[in-house]
């Protein structure tokens, strides 16, 4: 993901290829993301609201393949 001001863009997916474009915004520690799958593809979620910490982001997902639930992204240690 890349951040320019409060706008966030990037790619998400289970592997490096093929990925699905995402976009969203960051306000304080709240990150909101929306997926933009190409025709014929689906994503695990349509929208995601996360609380951003130093080493992880935790929040909820809605829509897509999953429906709704909780999600956690953890920074990989080198």
Detailed description of the structure:
- The protein contains no helices and seven strands.
- The two termini are 18 Å apart.
- It is mainly beta.
- The chain has one domain.
- The chain is globular and about 35 Å long.
- The mean pLDDT is 87.
- The chain has strands spanning 2-4, 7-12, 20-27, 30-35, 47-52, 56-63, 67-74.
- It has a seven-stranded antiparallel β-sheet, with no helix packed on it.
Q: How many whole angstroms does the radius of gyration measure?
A: 12 Å
Order of H and E elements: EEEEEEE
Q: Tell me which oligomeric state these chains represent.
A: single chain
Number of helical stretches of at least 4 residues:
0
Major sheet description: 7 strands, antiparallel
Q: How many individual β-strands?
A: 7
Question: Globular, elongated, flat, extended or rod-shaped: what is the shape?
Answer: globular
Mean pLDDT: 87
User: Biggest sheet: strands side by side, in what order?
Assistant: 1-2-3-4-5-6-7
Q: Termini distance?
A: 18 Å
Helical amount: under 10%
Classification by helices and strands: mainly beta
Number of domains: 1
Poorly predicted parts: none
- What percentage of amino acids are in beta strands? over 45%
